[in-house]
Task: structure prediction
Amino acid sequence: MEREIKCATVEGLMLLKLYALPSLYRQGNFARVGLYENDVATLINDYNPDLKPIFTELTAVLDESEMESVREITGEITSRIARFRKGLSE
Result:
């Protein structure tokens, strides 16, 4: 029995998670912030998506302060991943 199963792309998941993060921070919902940031970190670590097109899409729906927050969050995550990978290679 074959079924059609819909799935999301890595970029689509990143869009959803990053779009939600500024709002979750404003709400003080740090349990969900942690989950969403972990999801973003896992996607970046495992798939290394190009973030520029994702940021371009988000710029259309987030204001400048929210975009700054998203860039800061992803920058911190990519820095942590780089430190982790550097530690593994030593």
Summary: The helical segments are 10-27, 30-47, 51-59, 64-89. The chain has four helices and no strands. Residues 10-89 form one domain.
